[in-house]
Write a sequence for this structure.
């Protein structure tokens, strides 16, 4: 079995710092070539965990999840839902920024299922360390990583889904999706549902 083979069984890290170090040295897929790894941040035993898709351009440089445009929407919605971000653990399904260069810019590229599955090893390590009561999957990629299968947001939002590790899973939109909704009224409605979903998850975790 090769070092980058996702079936490879290393001893899983026992701390958030161990996950950061492991992600830094990770060769489970080729995305390590894309720049800095960004693992999760927040209290080691937060009751609520947010899982996004992957770090973006600003997150890769700052080495922190959700600090760019999507992070600003998340922060605004969290404030409106009265959810203190500092009390939650924020991470991503994939720990590297998959992108393609376009001149001076780096354009986001959605990670494929193989990359999500390879990186799930780190998300599972974070889940074992933090042991949150509730895990919120932000968007379809995160839902695939958290639930291990496609979980349509329209069908499952505002639903507590039992996970094998005793946590409850909740699925909602990815904040970047809210930026892309073209129609102003539809955007306002989707954002309102997002705020409601965050409040629902926080209440569930109480
Ligand atoms: N989008 C994500 O899914 N995660 C981040 O950390 C930033 C943008």
């Amino acid at each position: 079995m090769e070092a980058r083979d996702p079936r490879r069984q290393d001893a899983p890290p026992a701390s958030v710092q161990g996950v950061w170090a492991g992600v830094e040295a990770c060769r489970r897929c080729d995305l390590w070539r894309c720049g800095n790894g960004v693992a999760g941040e927040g209290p080691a035993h937060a009751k609520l965990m947010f899982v996004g898709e992957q770090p973006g351009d600003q997150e890769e440089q700052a080495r922190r999840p959700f600090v760019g445009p999507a992070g600003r929407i998340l922060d605004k919605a969290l404030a409106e839902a009265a959810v203190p971000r500092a009390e939650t653990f924020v991470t991503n399904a994939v720990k590297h920024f998959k992108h393609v260069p376009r001149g001076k810019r780096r354009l986001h590229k959605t990670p494929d299922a193989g990359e999500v599955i390879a990186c799930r090893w780190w998300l599972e390590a974070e889940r074992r360390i933090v042991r949150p009561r509730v895990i919120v999957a932000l968007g379809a990629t995160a839902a695939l990583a958290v639930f291990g299968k496609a979980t349509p947001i329209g069908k499952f939002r505002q639903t507590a889904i039992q996970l094998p590790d005793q946590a409850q899973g909740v699925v909602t939109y990815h904040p970047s999706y809210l930026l892309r909704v073209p129609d102003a009224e539809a955007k306002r409605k989707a954002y309102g549902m997002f705020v409601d979903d965050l409040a629902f998850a926080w209440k569930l975790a109480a």
Helices lie at 16-24, 57-62, 69-80, 113-130, 140-147, 153-156, 175-180, 184-205. The chain is about 40% helix and 15% strand. The first strand starts at residue 48 and ends at 52.
